[in-house]
Amino acid sequence: GFISRVVCVFNMGKRSRQRKKEHQKNSKPGGRDSRDNAVGLGCHHTGYADIVKENKLFETYYKELGLVPDGEFDQFMESMREPLPATIRITGYKSHAKEILHCLKNKYFKEIQEVEIDGQKIEAPQPLSWYPDELAWHTNMSRKILRKSPLLEKFHQFLVSETESILDMCAAPGSKTAQLIEMLHADMDIPFPEGFVIANDVDNKRCYLLVHQAKRLNSPCIMVVNHDASCIPRLQIDSPDGGKDTLFYDRILCDVPCSGDGTMRKNIDVWKKWTTSNSLHLHGLQIRIAVRGVEQLAVGGRMVYSTCSLNPIEDEAVIATLLEKSEGALELADTSAELPGLKWLPGVSKWKLMTKEGQWYNDWSEVPANRHTQIRPTMFPPTDAEKLAGMKLERCMRILPHHQNTGGFFVAVLVKKAPMPWNRRHPKEQLSSSVAQPEASPVETPLPGLPLEDGEGGEMGVKEEAAEISPKEAEAGDLIKEAKVCGPPPNKKMKLHGFKEDPFVFLTADDPVFPPIESFYDLCPDFPKINVLTRTHEGKKRHLYIVSKELRNVMLNNSERMKVINTGVKVLSRNSDGEEFGCAFRLAQEGIYTLFPYIRSRIISISVEDIKVLLTQENPYLSKLEDAAHQQAKQIGMGSIVLRYQPDNSSSDGPQCPIELCGWRGKTSIRAFVPRNERFHYLRMLGVEVFRDKQGQGPGTRDGEEKVDGEEKVEVKVDGEEKVEVKVEVKMEVEEVVNDGEEGVETENGIKDGSIKDELKEVKIEATST
C-alpha cells in the first residue's frame, strides 16, 4: 500500500559504488599484498587522500558579490566546510505518518537523549520549524556515528525501514517527486485523487532510479517519462465537449541542472572542481528548460524554479530573463508568509560576472567580442532601472547554509497571469457576418534570442495559416512572414533512446478477465475497469495495474508523443493455484489501498495481536487468530483475502489508522502476502522492535562471508517479552520471472529490480525462541 515510512537522508557525498568495490578489491586490509607493502614501506594503504576544502576562486567570487550579509562570510565558509546533519523525513499517508511520528517521539528520540559518543554529546533530533506537521527532523549526528554506534543501533534500525496536474521537469532521483505524490494522497480515503504527477528526466538510466523511488509510494497517479526537459512535448487530452484540449499544468517543479556550489557540504568534489565557467555553460540550458516550463503552465498556475547553486547567473539572471521576455505574463509570487520558520535572504538585483581568470565584467558592454560566445547578455541584470524594479527580484529566496544548518539553495515561485507572448493567438478579422472566430490553440515558437532545440514546438503540428500575430510580436521576435505565423517544423517520429519498454495496454470494460474477479471479490459496480492496464498484448495477463482516469486520458491521447517508462500501481497478480478456488488473480499488497474501497467480500477484520501473529509467523493456524477473526476466517473459502485493522475511536490503544494487508486463506492456516520491508514497517508501527543482522555478519558467519542460503535473520521483541528470531527467506519463483515479459528496473547498484519483484518474493517468517 501507500505506506508511511521514515526516509533518512544522510547528506554526505559518496563515490561510485563500482569505484569503491575496485578500490577495496585492490587493497584488502590484512591480505598478503597489504602485509608485504606494510613490511617494505613501514605502512599500509590508507585509502583516498582527503579533499582539501579550499577554493580561493570561490571565496573571491562570493565575497566580491556580497551575497552573504556583512560580518557573516567567515561563518558562511566555516559552515560550508562542515558536513550536513542527518535529516529525517516521515513520508506516506498522513494517518500512517502520524503513527510513525508518535512512535519516534515517544520511544526512539527519548532513548538517545544525553548520549555521548567519543566525547561528542549527541543532540536529540529536533523538528524543522518550517516543515509542516513535524514530519521532518534533523540531528547533529554524523553518518558514521548513526550507522556504527552500538548505542544508536535501535534508532538506526528504525530508520532503515522503509487535485492538481503537476509536472516535475527534472525529477530524478525522485525525492521531490515523492513529496508531490504525498500531497496528492493527503486524504487516505480517496483512492484516486483528481490530480496526477508526470515526472520527467532526460537520463534514461536515472528514470529507472526515479521509478524505484516512486513505486515505494504505490500511487496510481504517477507517470515517469523520458524526455529532454527543454523540449518536453506538449500533450493533448480529451475535452468535456468531445474535442481535444492542450494539457496545461497547474503546478510545475523546474529544478534545473546547476553547478551545485550550494552542495559543497555533501558533494565535496565540488571544492576542487568549481569554477565560474560552470555557471556560464549551464545558463542557456537553464533558460531553455524554464521557458519550456512556463509555456506548459496553465494561466493562474505556479512554477517553482530552483537550483542548489548560489550564483546569480544561474538564479536571478534566469528569472529576470523570463520576466523580461514574458512582457507581463509572469510575475514573482510573494511567499514570505508561507514558510514562517524558514530563514532566507531576498534575491538581489545587482551582480557582476567573473571569468575563471579573475576578470570582472559589470555589464554586457564591457565584454570583449572574443568572449561573446561564452558570455551572453542575459547573464547580466537588466539595464533599465524601472523595468528591473518592476521585476521584484527581492521575492526570490536564497538559503544560506549557516543560517539553519542546511545546504545552499535558490528558489523562485512564478505565477502565470496570461499566455506567453510568443504563444498568443489573436482572432482573425471578422467575417462579413460580423461573428469573430474563436481564439486558436497556442503554438510554440522559439524564444527570441534562444536557439531552437530539435523537436521543440513541433508537437502540435499547427498549420501556418492557423492564425495571425500582432506587429508587436513581429518586432520582438521577427516572427511575421507574409502576415502569417511561421509554423513549427513538421512532426518527426519520436526518437527512442535507452531500453524499449513493454507496451501499456488498457483493457476494455467487457474484457473476459473481469467477471471472475468481480464475482470473487464482489467488486462495486463503480470499479473503474477501463483504467486497468497490462504490459502485454498477447498471452496470459500476469499482472493488472490501474491508473487514475486523468492519467488514462493522458496516455491514450499521447502514445506517439511521449516515452513512458512506468505508470500505474499493481492491484492483482495471477496465481496458478487460484483458478481452482474461483479466481486466477490474487490481491497485490502494492495496490491494496487503491483497490480496497471497491472490495465488498473476502474481508477479515483483525486486531493488533492478529497482525503481530500474521507478520511474525509463517502460515499460522486459523486457531492462532483471536476469536472474532477466527470465526470470520472459517466462513470464507480458500483463496486471496483482505486482512483489515480498523482503529477503535473510543480507545487510544493501538494504531489510530486503518491497516490493510493482503493474505491467503488456506485449508487450515492463513498467511499475509506482505513484502519484507512493509512487514518491518507495520511491526514497528505496532511497537515491535525489529533488529536485523548486518549482511554477511549474522550468527554463524565470519566477517566478509556471504550467506548462501538467501536468508536474513531478524529478531523481534513484542511488548517487552523475550526476543523472537524471525528468519526471512527470499525465494524467487523462476517460472514467473521467465514468463512475465516485463523488464527490470535498474537500481543504484546496477541490480535489475523487476516491477514484479516484491510480489514474487516468497517471504517466509519462522518464529523460534532464543
Automatic annotation (TrEMBL):
Signal peptide: none annotated. Keywords: Methyltransferase, Nucleus, RNA-binding, S-adenosyl-L-methionine, Transferase, tRNA processing, tRNA-binding. One of its GO terms (biological process) is tRNA methylation. Residues 76-417 form the SAM-dependent MTase RsmB/NOP-type domain. Its EC number is 2.1.1.203. InterPro entries: MeTrfase_RsmB-F_NOP2_cat (IPR049560), MeTrfase_RsmB-F_NOP2_dom (IPR001678), Pre-PUA_NSUN2 (IPR057285), PUA_NSUN2 (IPR057286), RCMT (IPR023267), RCMT_NCL1 (IPR023270), SAM-dependent_MTases_sf (IPR029063). Residues 14-23 have a biased composition (Basic residues). PROSITE patterns: SAM_MT_RSMB_NOP. Residues 14-39, 424-452, 694-716 are annotated as: Disordered. The active site is at C308. Transmembrane segments: none annotated. SUPFAM superfamilies: S-adenosyl-L-methionine-dependent methyltransferases. GO terms for cellular component: cytoplasm; extracellular region; nucleus. Gene3D superfamilies: Vaccinia Virus protein VP39. It is found in: Nucleus; Secreted, Extracellular exosome. Residues 702-716 have a biased composition (Basic and acidic residues). One of its GO terms (molecular function) is tRNA (cytidine-5-)-methyltransferase activity. It catalyses: cytidine(50) in tRNA + S-adenosyl-L-methionine = 5-methylcytidine(50) in tRNA + S-adenosyl-L-homocysteine + H(+); cytidine(34) in tRNA precursor + S-adenosyl-L-methionine = 5-methylcytidine(34) in tRNA precursor + S-adenosyl-L-homocysteine + H(+); cytidine(49) in tRNA + S-adenosyl-L-methionine = 5-methylcytidine(49) in tRNA + S-adenosyl-L-homocysteine + H(+); a cytidine in mRNA + S-adenosyl-L-methionine = a 5-methylcytidine in mRNA + S-adenosyl-L-homocysteine + H(+). S-adenosyl-L-methionine binds at C170, A171, A172, P173, G174, S175, K176, D201, D228, D255. Belongs to the class I-like SAM-binding methyltransferase superfamily. RsmB/NOP family. PANTHER family: NCL1 YEAST -RELATED NOL1/NOP2/FMU SUN DOMAIN-CONTAINING, RNA CYTOSINE-C(5)-METHYLTRANSFERASE NSUN2-RELATED. This is tRNA (cytosine(34)-C(5))-methyltransferase. It comes from Esox lucius (Northern pike).
